[in-house]
Amino acid sequence: MKLSIVHRLKRPVAAAFVGALTTLAFAPFQIWPIAILSPMMLLLLIHQQRPKHALMIGYFWGLGQFATGISWVYVSIANFGGMPIIANLFLMGGLIAYLAIYPALFAGVYQRYFAQVRAINLLLAAPALWLVCDWLRGWVMTGFPWLWLGYSQIDAPLSVFAPIGGVELITLLMVSIAGALSYAVLSRRYMSLALIALIAAAIWALKPIQWVTPMRDNTTSIALIQGNIAQELKWAPHQRWPTIMKYTDLSRENWDADIIIWPEAAIPAFEIEIPSFLSNLNSAAKMNNSAVVTGVVNQASNGQFYNSILALGVTPQDEYRFDLSERYNKHHLLPFGEFVPFGELLRPIAPFFNLPMSSFSRGDFVQPNIIANERHLAPALCYEIIFNEQVRANVTDETDFLLTLSNDAWFGASIGPIQHMEIARMRALELGKPLIRSTNNGITAVTDHTGTVVATIPQFETAVLRAELTPTRGQTPYQRWGTLPIYLWVIAALAMAIFAKRQRQAPCEATE
C-alpha cells in the first residue's frame, strides 16, 4: 500500500519540481528556454495517466510554479498584514492553491479528451487548451494573468510575434513547440520538429519588419520622480507635507522637462483636501511651459473612492479644478489590496483586510488619454498593466506613449517589481508605443517602442530619471485586431482535434 502511494506520487512531485523551475524563465533570471521545456515535461508526465491522476499532476505543477513565481506576494502579507505567521502562510497557501487549479484543469481535460499520442493533439489541441486555461485565469474573479509563459520571451527570438498577436500568440507558439518536442519523444517520429523549423523561419522573416514609424523630429523630454517613500510612512499624517514637498522640490529642479511624472498615489492626501497646493503647482508648471502628471487618491461626493491620475500645468484645462470626469480613474482593482471580495465577511476577521485604501471603486474600462503638454498618454495604474486588452482598448491613433504609474514598495526587494517591469515592456512591444513607468521606489524606467529599456534608475533610491522619448505613428497588427484572431484559431484547433478524434472512433464503432 505504501509503495503504491509512493509510486503514485512520483509524477506529481516531479511535476512540482518542473513547475518550480519555470520561474527561472522569467525576470530576473530570464533563462527563457525553460518556459518551453517545462510544459513539454508536463505533457510527458501526464502521458498514459488517467484523467484524475493527470489533473493531480497538473495541480502539483501549478503549485510549484506559483509557490516560487509569486513568492513576492508574501512580502506584502507579512510586512503589512498585521497577522501571525501561520495566518500569513495560510493566506499565501490559499492563493497558490487557487492558481494551481488552472494548470490542473489543462492536464485533466487534455488527458480526458486528447490522451492519444497524435500530432493533432499535441500540436493543436494542447496549445489551444493551454491558452483557454490561461484566459480563464486572467478573467475569473477579475483575473490574475501573471506568469503567462509568453512574458518570459521579451528578450528571446519569439518576441517578434508580440506585435502580431500579443503575449497570447507567443504563449501559443511556445506550447506548440513543447507539443512538437513531446510528440517526437513519445512517438519516435520527428516530422513534428518541422513546426519548430517553420517558426524559426517566421522569426527570421519577421525580424526586419517595422510595424510602426518613430517620429524622429518630435521628441519629448521626460522627468520621472522616484520619491522612495517608505510604505509604512506613506500615509502617516506627520509625513504628508514632507512627502509632498519632496516631490515638489525635485520637480522644481526639472521644470525644463516637457512632462514631469510622479508615481501612483504620490500625493498622500485626498485631492479635495489640498486644492490650494494643486492650484499653485498647476500655475508653476504652466509658467515653466511644463506639465505634471501624478497619481492621487480621490473621494467623490457620494463617498466612493478612486485611485486616479491627474495632469496639471500645460493641459487642455486652463485652471485647476476638482472634476473627477477629467481624471483617469483606475478600472482594474487589485483584489484584497484595493477592494476586498466578500468584504463584510472578511474585514472583521483580520487587519490584513483593512489595509489603507482597500475600498476603491472602479473607473470605466475605456477612458480618454491623459493630455500633458500636447502629448497623449494611454494610462494604466500599477496592476492594470498586466491586462493587455484593457491597455490596448485605451490606445488611440493619437496616443504618443503608454504611461504606467506604480507603487511596488509593498513588495520590497522581491522579484515582484522586476516581473512587473517585464510585463510592462511586453505592452510596449505589442502596441509599438514607448512606455513610461514611474514608481515610488523602483523599477522606474522608460522603454522605446520595442520594449527595450532605454533609461532606468536604481531601486530604493531617491532619484530623477531624465529621458528623451520619440513617439510612433501607425498600428501593429495586435493593436488593430487584438487577440480575437488568436482565440478564433483556438476554437478552430479544438474543433479540428475533436473532429479528428470522432473520425478515428467511427470505424472502430462500426466494426463492433
UniProtKB/TrEMBL annotation:
PROSITE patterns: CN_HYDROLASE. It is a multi-pass membrane protein. It comes from the Bacteria. GO terms for cellular component: plasma membrane. NCBIfam families: lnt. PANTHER family: APOLIPOPROTEIN N-ACYLTRANSFERASE. This is Apolipoprotein N-acyltransferase. The lineage of its organism: Bacteria, Pseudomonadati, Pseudomonadota, Gammaproteobacteria, Vibrionales.
